[in-house]
Amino acid sequence: MKQFRQLSIEDSSKASLSMVDWTLSIFLLLSGASALIYQVLWVRLLTLSIGSTSVSISIVLSVFFLGLGVGSYFAASLIKKFKNPLKVYIVVEAGIALSAILILPLLLNLDYFISLLPIVEAGVWIKFFVVTAILFIPTFLIGTTFPLIVAVAVHNKKEVGQKLAHFYAFNSLGAVAGAISSGFYLIPNFALDGTLYVAVMLNISIAVAGVALLGHFNSSFKVQQRLFSNTAKTNKNALFVLFITGFTALATEVGWMKFLIVYTGNTIYGFSMILAMFIAGITIGSFIAKLKIISKIETEKLLFFGLILLALALLGARAGLGAFPEIYEQLNTLEVGAFAYRWSKYFVMFLILLPATAMFGLLFPLALQYYSPNIDTLHANVGKAYSVNIIAGIMGSIVAGFWIIPYFSTDVLLSAAAFIVLLSSFIFIKSNAVKNAFLYFVGFFSVAFAMNFFLPHLDYRKMVEIVISRDSKAYSQKSTIHYIKEGESGVIGLLSNDDNPCIVKIFNNGLNESWIDVCNSENMLLSEFLLGKIPLMLNPDAKKAFVVGYGGGTTLMGLSMSELESINVVEIEPAVLDAVRTLYNNRLPTDNDKRVNITINDARYSLLISKGTYDIIVSQPSHPWLRGSSNIMNRDFFEIVKSKLSQNGINGQWVPLFMIDIATLKSIIKAYTDTFTYVVSFVNVNTRDFLMFGSNMPININREFVLKEINHSEARAVFTYHNIDEPEDLMGYFALSKEQLVEISANSEPATDLNLLSEIYKSRYGAIDGNSFNTLGFINDYLNSQVVK
To answer: Is the separation of the CB atoms in 562 and 536 below 8 Å?
Structure first.
């Protein structure tokens, strides 16, 4: 501690990087880590209640960054009012921890509060208001941290550029650590609430350390007294650079995420990995900005050529991603171990993005320094400049996600971002620091035009093909993709194997979701068909039904072959409906059925705010380890379903027995049996599908009611095709009773919103004794053991 007694804030400016600077660097490192952890957690928790559509997720992210921007803008006002930025910073870190703890109960119970709202459907602005009300205070406080640290440590004009880059680099490095640790370690081991407490402890540690060290700093801060009366001018061009780089950084991140998630998988691991790649590149660029060789070059020259290089790097990244499928195939030829085989692909992705992300990281501190080169105005203006960058980022993500990608394509987005950056360099054409700037601009514009024309463009078809060949042996035979479209949640398409062209499979990011026999209408996917028909057998008086997910439409078709009065279907991805329409002359099979109402929305959210009850609720989500799908395959969702069932209502839940481990299957079964008092289950061995049916009332399988549905005029041909002519034929698919389901999952932890057990299976797979992917064998072994008994 004696080292600190010898240092004042003003003394710290005399050394290049003093002990004070390194202490504050650690503060920013931990603060950056906690901020990214909060971002991951709050996005996840809020989308459970307001929906996981792309619009809902964008709302949460926009509010998060809006709070950061507003906090950055008003940081100077806090410094001016309270004079001592270090004390303010300590209070802010404590405030972040306190506010995060206080809003946690609200986040955990937001389902309940939203269900009380007198609304049938909450629009964008209602959701925006709800999220803002919850997140504004903590995000505002997080936004003040970087400007406050700058006010504490930067007091020497000669070190402005170096220290801005240094602190921004450490803050970004912390963000990388937060992104990786939250997805790969914290959430899998401590669940969502436990991970939040880890982030809270980081903030508290900073605050306690700051208090302990405060007395060892010279805290007079007299230098701050004159910072807000100075009338020195700022460079407005810097704000333009900050706006352009912020706008294009977040826009390209959206595009890169959309493309790479096809390969990494739309899971918490894939999201964390891509986010970490992006921030890691920014961190490297920030460290480059603090090099002495950079400080010797005039700032205007750096910004001019920096923007040009960024534009070229963005085009290079697009070309690299376009060539990734070919690179992937070459990497597959290498004879390396499993670890190197897997991570070599991610390393290549990182290298493809690195030049562009590093340039973003380099340009930010340079633009901050350029905006306020006078040390007397730096502290008053750094927060405002930072806020411009953040607000521009919000705008970029919204424009990318809501306009360019849906109406054009990700490829157009990435190309447009590059040329926007390139054109922005034109503001330095008349700069005295750059001789022959116009000639350089014309030359590099020609190079960029040639790169855009001749270098590879994004090809989702090839990206999907490598995922299909990687994940499914069933697709190893030659196949043809008939339709492909960038959807809101993924890349949707139709595919058939050349040796059986009648079976058209619907895929999302290369993963099979359902199939349709376009040659024989009687050959419906039996598991999906039974998911719709068995509830009608168990509740013959049913009038109203609710369907989670459209899939191939088979479950809906099964339900429509009945006397139901209304069937509400909620599908989150409109491209799924578009794909199916192409198989039926641009129509859906139920378009003429007035009982059917198909809505594009988040099913959990739609069910949550619905005011009535349903006699039948069936759910056929995507694979349970995917983000969004895990939200509707756990105990919290089952409780919502239970609350929306009528007295004799029946719920049907599809669970795959393929690409899922035994531990995850048991956690889903445990969640289901904990929720519903009465449960029966069926299994289709051929397609590896498991169906559970639950109710609040005793479930009776009445032979008369079963026979009635089998002999229904519209359904009879389908049952006959699958050799189900009598109730006894159907009972051949019967699997386990409630008691047996309870027994096989007795020692398992139920899947919930907080533990994300179905989504984090990769982190716990090897740690569970006897775990494997042979889920069908697990069920068969249990059934055989019961026969022996």
So the answer is: yes
